[in-house]
Amino acid sequence: MPERPDLEHQVPILARELVGRTVTEATVGLPVLLRVVVPGRLGELLPGHRIEGVRRQLHFVRFALAPPPGAAPLELVVHPMLAGRFQLCDPGERLPKDCGVALTLDDGRQLRFRDSEQMGKVYLVPAGRQELVPGLTPVGIDVLDPKAFTLAAFTALAKKRRDQVKLFLLDKAQLDSFGNCYADEALFAAGIHPKARVSELSPVQLARLHAAMVQVLTEANAVIARVDPPLPDKHRDHVKVRNRAGQPCPVCGEKIRASGVRGHDAFFCPRCQPDDKGRGFVDWRKPG
């Protein structure tokens, strides 16, 4: 899924290209993605609305809309999930099969939300009713805000947790915000096993994790900004452990392993991220 560093790159592009444009037509290719919580159909409701703003909130993208005369104000909220991606197309380009929603703009271009896995969600809600979008609120501490994300604040959150540390990092009501990829990267940088209980972490480990979380997101933002990938693409060449099972650890050379953490997968180095309880190890040297 697009994670915070991806969206930090994509949302300014969307804002630059879309703010001030008016929707002239809305086409639905994959109805399974839609969550329209106002009376009517997307294709009838959106034309005539002007895009007033685009911003990230957690792993959602929020499109503020100004209504035509006599219409109620609406907001479009997109949760890309696993495979969702945005694309801006010139007029006349054929709609691909994975196009969930296409908005034709007054300059002829189309904004397309594509999702080959059909797991993303496109919500159309009344303006100001963000509580109608599951998972959009509450928003946790901004990890990249040095005034808010202090070691003291992070430690206070951690003291309330008894679950596995990767689940803690994925809790967006506590921390804004990690997905699977950068949670794995932060834990690797901190030398902490993803299945370790938060309550088991020492003050030194919590301090390392606090610093690693900031470092990993900051560096990912910088790398993606420098590479400047096209809008639909996710750049992952810089990650050290995520989706690299069986490959050598870039620090010690041990093979990266994978394990499940309560419905999520996790990638880690068993030597750099030791776990004396032996939880979740998969020996990738054995066939099958």
Query: So what's the overall shape?
Result: elongated
User: What sequence of helices (H) and strands (E) makes up the elements?
Assistant: HEEHEEEEEEEEHHEHHEE
CATH homologous superfamily annotation of the largest domain: MutM-like, N-terminal
Low-pLDDT regions: 278-288
Mean pLDDT figure:
92
SS element count, helices: 6
The count of β-strands is 13
Query: Distance between the terminal alpha carbons, to the nearest Å?
Result: 28 Å
The oligomerization state is: single chain
Number of domains: 2
CATH topology of the largest domain: N-terminal domain of MutM-like DNA repair proteins
CATH 2nd-level architecture of the largest domain? Alpha-Beta Barrel
What features would you describe in this structure?
- This protein has two domains: 4-132, MutM-like, N-terminal (N-terminal domain of MutM-like DNA repair proteins, Alpha-Beta Barrel), CATH 3.20.190; 141-268, Helicase, Ruva Protein, domain 3 (Orthogonal Bundle), CATH 1.10.8.50.
- The protein has six helices and 13 strands.
- It has helices spanning 4-18, 42-45, 151-158, 165-170, 180-190, 203-227, and strands at residues 23-28, 34-36, 50-57, 60-66, 74-79, 84-89, 99-105, 110-115, 121-126, 141-142, 175-176, 257-261, 264-268.
- The strands form four sheets. The protein has a five-stranded mixed β-sheet with strand order 2-9-5-4-3, with helices on one face. A four-stranded antiparallel β-sheet has the order 1-7-8-6.
- A hairpin with a 7-residue loop joins strand 4 (60-66) and strand 5 (74-79).
- Helix 3 (151-158) crosses helix 6 and helix 5 (180-190) crosses helix 6 (203-227).
- The longest helix is centred in the last third of the chain and has 25 residues, at 203-227.
